[in-house]
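Support request from a user on the community tier.

User writes: "When I paste my structure tokens into the form, the page sometimes reloads and wipes my input. The last time it worked, I copied everything first. Here is what I submitted, just in case something in the input itself triggers the reload:"
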């Protein structure tokens, strides 16, 4: 039940909204921006509106700001936010991909994973945990302070990671991997919400890519760390030291996230009232809102009936089938060349470096070139297609060609890095944006679940059926991206032809979704 105070606030907000609507109807077009800017927000209904209006209602000085002020704010934000997002995501990939490196240091023998598909399922079950964890974590992040939710998840998953060293059979490892996925499942959706609340649409692509490319660069650092840990001659198997060290680092990092992650412009510490105002006011351009803690059933239904939601989901799903050979089987494929475990680790480093560079380059291109994101995603799929054909057709004696194919297969990461920004840019309404963030991540999980299971022990060492499957899903991903591109362009044209120009007058009113706000335009 809504409190009396909220009733008063809603009545005042409704009156304020009616005044704006009268101005709009009097002109028969979108209200003049000067008129909108002259209206003063005197109440803050945060049940139906975005919480950003609380900042706009406070004393902040001149409504206008200079480009220099905005640049200083953006620079300050980048320095405070991006290092935390980048290190956290790199750490997450380091933790969850540890299995592929532990595989060449005895974990398959110690836990009896060489039987049937036990090893493949050990990788896949992590993403079943992701599936169960992503939506609850997203809901927690909307209802409670994001930085506390993120820090709590990271702290517990660090403990869970260390517990891997106590596993004595494959059943114990499966349970641990499921729980790890359950805890890590909220990181991507939470980070997407954070970036979507701080940055303009055109700025989001580069920032999303900045933290996502750390999945590749973590593949450069982790083999070096595990190269050293793999040489320990102690009472434990080398793979156990790997998990203990990674878990301890994760637990320490959770404390950093708790105290230093800037969650959104409304609650972030260390920003002046003037900086908060600029951070919120400039986000009107997105037409997506900043934060609203009230779960809205009508936005849930709209999301589930929106074809874009399902395109986000299936693009992520089909694309990430190709991540199976990269994250789970690359070290094993390289070791099949006849190398020892330590040299195998060193030869996997270029794969991580190339993947990280492709992801970062794709994000930078999306930032630099407006409305070229679908083209960039299509381009990033091409090396994955080429890799699958090479892995399928080349003879096993052509080690150079096979190694090159292993290095470029994860270029699909560039597609996903850009897709994250597209999802945030094209989803308005806080509940709808939260659902889209979780939806694309669920697609990511299902794809990663399917990928490793395509690699059957009887198909080793070529795994031809698996690479045929990855090739098919990569081509299907390209087809869905083309459909998404067409729909975005079509809907923008329809709105243009209706005579309603793009505008930002109602960015924080009624927490409008992209479908209900005729001034909204889709990023392509």
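"...and here is what came back when it finally went through:"
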């Amino acid at each position: 039940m809504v409190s009396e105070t909220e009733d008063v606030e809603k009545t005042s907000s409704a009156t304020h909204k009616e005044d704006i609507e009268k101005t709009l109807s009097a002109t028969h077009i979108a209200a003049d921006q000067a008129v909108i800017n002259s209206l003063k927000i005197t109440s803050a209904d945060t049940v139906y509106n975005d919480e950003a209006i609380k900042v706009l209602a406070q004393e902040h000085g001149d409504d206008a700001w200079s480009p220099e002020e905005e640049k200083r704010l953006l620079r300050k934000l980048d320095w405070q936010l991006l290092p935390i997002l980048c290190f956290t995501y790199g750490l997450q990939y380091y933790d969850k991909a540890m299995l592929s490196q532990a595989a060449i240091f005895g974990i398959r023998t110690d836990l009896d994973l060489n039987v049937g598909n036990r090893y493949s399922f050990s990788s896949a079950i992590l993403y079943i945990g992701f599936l169960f964890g992503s939506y609850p974590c997203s809901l927690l992040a909307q209802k409670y302070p994001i930085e506390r939710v993120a820090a709590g998840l990271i702290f517990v998953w660090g403990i869970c990671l260390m517990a891997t060293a106590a596993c004595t059979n494959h059943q114990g490892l499966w349970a641990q991997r499921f729980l790890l996925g359950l805890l890590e499942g909220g990181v991507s959706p939470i980070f997407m919400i954070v970036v979507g609340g701080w940055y303009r649409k055109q700025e989001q692509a580069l920032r999303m890519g900045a933290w996502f490319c750390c999945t590749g660069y973590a593949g450069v650092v982790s083999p070096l760390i595990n190269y050293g840990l793999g040489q320990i001659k102690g009472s434990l198997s080398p793979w156990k030291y790997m998990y203990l060290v990674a878990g301890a680092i994760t637990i320490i990092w959770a404390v950093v996230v708790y105290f230093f992650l800037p969650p959104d412009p409304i609650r972030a510490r260390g920003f002046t009232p003037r900086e908060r105002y600029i951070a919120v006011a400039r986000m009107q351009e997105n037409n997506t809102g900043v934060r609203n803690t009230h779960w809205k059933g009508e936005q849930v239904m709209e999301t589930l009936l929106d074809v874009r939601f399902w395109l986000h989901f299936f693009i992520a799903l089909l694309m990430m089938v190709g991540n199976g050979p990269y994250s789970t089987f690359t070290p094993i494929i390289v070791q099949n060349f006849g190398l020892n475990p330590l040299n195998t680790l060193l030869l996997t480093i270029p794969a991580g470096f190339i993947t990280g560079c492709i992801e970062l380059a794709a994000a930078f291109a999306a930032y630099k070139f407006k409305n070229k994101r679908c083209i960039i995603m299509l381009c990033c799929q091409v090396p994955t297609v080429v890799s699958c054909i090479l892995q399928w057709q080349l003879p096993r004696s052509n080690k150079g060609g096979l190694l090159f194919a292993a290095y470029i297969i994860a270029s699909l990461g560039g597609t996903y890095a850009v897709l994250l920004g597209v999802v945030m840019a094209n989803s308005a309404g806080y509940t709808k944006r939260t659902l889209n963030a979780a939806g694309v991540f669920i697609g990511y999980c299902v794809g990663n679940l399917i990928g490793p299971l395509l690699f059957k022990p009887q198909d080793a060492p070529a795994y031809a059926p698996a690479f045929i499957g990855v090739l098919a899903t990569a081509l299907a991903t390209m087809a869905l991206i083309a459909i998404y591109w067409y729909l975005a362009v079509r809907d923008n044209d329809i709105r243009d032809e209706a005579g309603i120009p793009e505008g930002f007058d109602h960015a924080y009113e009624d927490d409008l979704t992209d479908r209900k706000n005729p001034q909204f335009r889709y990023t392509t």
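Agent notes: The reload is a front-end session timeout and is unrelated to the input. The chain has two domains: 4-45, 67-497. The CA atoms of residues 335 and 344 lie 6 Å apart. Escalated to web team.
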